[in-house]
Amino acid sequence: MKILVVSNLYPPDVMGGYELGCRQVVEALLRKGHDVQVLTTVPRVPVRPLPQVCRVFHLADVYTPQLQEGLSPLGHVLRHADACWVRAFNVQVLLEHLAEFTPDVVYLWNLVGLGGLGLLGCLHHQGVPWLWHLMDKTPRDLCTLPWEPGSEQLGSAMAPLLDGLYLACSCRLVEEIQRHVPLPSSAVTLLPNWVVAPLWRRRRWYAGGVLRIATAAGHLCREKGIDMLIDAAGLLRQYGYDKFFMALFGRTDDDFSRLVQARGLQEHVHFAGFLEQDELARHYADCDVFAFPTWPREPFGFAPLEAAAQGCVPLITDDCGIGEWLVHGVHCLKAPRVAAAFADAFADILRGRTELARLGRRAAAVVAEEFHLRRLLPRIEAALRQAAERQRPALGLPEEAYHLALLGEKLGGALVQDLVAC
Amino acid sequence: MNSLPQPLSPTRIVWLTAGSVTGPLLESAVELASPPGLSVVVVSQGEKWSRKRVAPGVTMQVLVSPQLAQGPLSWDLAGVVARCDLVHLFDPCSLSAALALLAARLRGIPVVATCPAVSAGLWAALDLRRLAAWVVPGGASAAELSDVYRMVLATRREAA
User: Whole-angstrom Cα distance, residue B20 to residue B16?
Assistant: First the structure.
């Protein structure tokens, strides 16, 4: 198949798991002999050129925190409109690639920052079939007005543009999108996230002694529960436990180290910086528990699965996306998202009430068997084939699609200008 | 087994006007819809939603539209447009006309516009007349409009 992949970011320009997952699938599809071209944005950092990757879209960067700081409320609205609605420039880029590459199917990933509605409108107008891999509430973000009332109407108005096929990593994500956007359930296939990293030989299974706890995220932030995890470490100390060590992998802008100092936890909590996935996997093989006290709207998250593959037992928030795929007490541990609950779970392990080694072996086995990308790739290919069959005649010439994009961009601008006037 | 013959659904035309609906406009709509097989929905925008049938084949619909700095704009327009075969923009320079034009063309629905006395707004800035299937002069009679609609719809059918 000729597959045109569209993603806002593409490694090594990364924010988190969404684009890392995109690269893993692209590489797997290339290995299977598909003709794949990636269309993404001009990188935010210098990167080496890759033969199948065109970094030509313009990105409305809503991801770099430093660029968001100091923006007025109006600035946020303008940035949102730019990122989510229509960027005629990017529509023109897409049209040119559609003409040159003539894909059988377009494989959409995260469209925030690209003027995603414009790209969807273009594909709809040109009758190009697509499959959208959802690892975040992107359709909802695109159809949201920065001022809340009216969002539902925007979702309804955009319904024709959303007529395609979807892969989604959890039911909770689909439900979250459907609360604002008419996404037909029949168009969605559930597909979990995956692992690809090699398995490392564990040097030990936990049987008492120092408990090694890891957590990792592209961006360590409050949504990922980092402050809560530090609080849980503090509670463990209050309970009288000191045989534990937490390693936190990822970039952070928050001043969590001050919190660590304030709790007197310097000997127990260590910020280990950002590591590539392969390096992280090796660390997971040396850790006993992967703590994932993430917010309830976490669609899935790759990291707990990657840790589980190495026998490092995930301890996850009991209502996050990955929780739909793993069973408490069988492959993982679940706890309510409060520091005390996580501290209690750690204490149970330290007291020997939770037999971690057995959980770890089962977790590693199930992940290797059910969540490896080589097992999931045939389902992705089948979804791409199914999407490709939905090709239909274009509603007009590419020039008209671009003209409509210009109109959409200006209409969005008019709405924002109105907000200024108000 | 042969299926039962389906009754032909009437061709549904949306007339979008930015201002208030005038008597002559309604008379034109009534005249246009007098032969069976064609219905006209005259859409305007206001503070209170309403919909009423004013004659056989003619309905007046008022959409609730927040008054933006550049004119009223209702998201419901997209839904109204979605259910028709042809859109006629009587005030193509208005913001709501631009939205209706976008919504219609994204569904492959042809758009006819009445040539404005003074070209302005996005209509002028983006040369939107190129997105319209036909531009008719102001004051075109119901018979003339009927001919244009028939021709535009026939072209669309051929393209399909």
Answer: 10
CA dihedral (B152, B156, B158, B160) in degrees, to 10, reads: 180
Q: How far apart are CA A350 and CA A206, in angstroms?
A: 10
Q: Which of A124-128, A306-310, A411-415 has the lowest average pLDDT?
A: A411-415
Are B65 and B46 in contact, with CB atoms under 8 Å apart? yes
Using one digit for the tens of pLDDT, what is the confidence trace for A94-138? Answer: 999 999 999 999 999 999 999 999 999 999 999 999 999 999 999
Q: Give me the residue from A125, A153, A417 closest to B76, CB to CB.
A: A153
A381-401 pLDDT, tens digit each: 999 999 999 989 999 999 999
Tokens 């509603």 belong to which residue?
Answer: A395
Name every residue in B having a CB less than 8 A away from some CB of A: 68-70, 73, 75-76, 78-79, 82, 95, 98-99, 101-103, 105-108, 122, 125-126, 128, 130-131, 160
Nearest CA in chain B to A152: B75
Q: What is the pLDDT of residues A322-333, one digit of tens each?
A: 999 999 999 999
Q: Which two structure tokens, joined as six digits, stand for A286?
A: 């040396």
Question: Is the separation of the CB atoms in B93 and B119 below 8 Å?
Answer: yes
Q: CA of B78 to nearest chain A CA: how many angstroms apart?
A: 5
Distance CA(A307)–CA(A281), nearest Å, equals 7
Region of residue B72 (left: phi > 0; alpha: psi -120 to 50; beta: else): beta
Instruction: Answer whether B106 sits within 8 Å of A160, measured CB to CB.
Output: yes
Cβ–Cβ of A156/B79 closer than 8 Å? yes
Tokens encoding A74: 């109006």
H or E, element range at A410: helix A398-421
> Would you call A407 and B131 a contact, using CB atoms and an 8 Å cutoff?
yes
Chain B nearest C-alpha distance from A247 (Å): 50
Q: Write the residue in A161, A400, A406 that is nearest to B126 by C-beta.
A: A406
Rounded Cα–Cα distance for residues A232 and A351 (Å): 16
Measured at the alpha carbon of residue A367, what is the angle toward residues A362 and A372, in degrees to the nearest 5?
A: 160
ipTM score for this prediction: 0.90
Please state, in angstroms and rounded to a whole number, the distance separating the CA atoms of residues A277 and A302. 10
Q: Which tokens is A5 given?
A: 């992949």
Q: What are phi and psi of A56, to 5 degrees?
A: -125, -20
pTM: 0.90
Contacts of A410 in chain B (CB under 8 A): 98, 122, 125-126
| Cα of B52 to nearest chain A Cα, Å | 23
Q: Do A410 and B98 touch (CB under 8 A)?
A: yes
Buried b (16+ CB within 10 A) or exposed e, B52-85: eeeeebbbbbbbebeebebbbbbbbbbebbbebb
B131: its two tokens = 């997105």
